[in-house]
Design goal:
Layout (H helix, E strand, L loop, with lengths): L1 E5 L2 E4 L4 E8 L8 E6 L6 E6 L6 E3 L7 E6 L4 E6 L8 E8 L3 E3 L3 E6 L1
Parallel strand pairs: 2-11
Antiparallel strand pairs: 1-3, 3-8, 4-5, 4-9, 5-6, 7-8, 9-10, 9-11
Length: 114
């Protein structure tokens, strides 16, 4: 299983970014997907999750109303649209799924300047 996240970068507070994560090695449409993030000195935290079919989404309170998780099963890709970014959103963002064990992709850095 390979998960590759991309789309991070440097953005000013209040700005937007869209992260993408391409999956391979699994039947993507069979698995729920999630985004996590880890800021320097902090533990990795769950940000958002989406069901296999895309009909159910959940968010951490800290991002609710600002972040939107979605997926395109035809493209084996999950997205994280982030708006109204804050400096506290600065972190490495990881996509993840659970296939007999938690699988992590290579992260992508998001830096929000205030």
């Amino acid at each position: 299983v390979l998960l590759q996240a991309f789309g991070g970068g440097l953005v000013q507070a209040g700005g937007s970014l869209r992260l993408s994560c391409a999956a391979s090695g699994i039947i993507f449409s069979n698995y729920g997907m999630a985004w996590y993030r880890q800021a320097p000195g902090n533990q990795r935290e769950w940000v958002a999750g989406i069901s296999a079919g895309g009909s159910t989404t959940n968010y951490a309170d800290s991002v609710k109303g600002r972040f939107t998780i979605s997926r395109d099963n035809a493209k084996n890709t999950v997205y994280l649209q982030m708006i109204s970014l804050k400096s506290e959103d600065t972190a490495v963002y990881y996509c993840s799924t659970f296939v007999r064990a938690r699988i992590w992709g290579k992260g992508t850095q998001v830096t929000v300047s205030s």
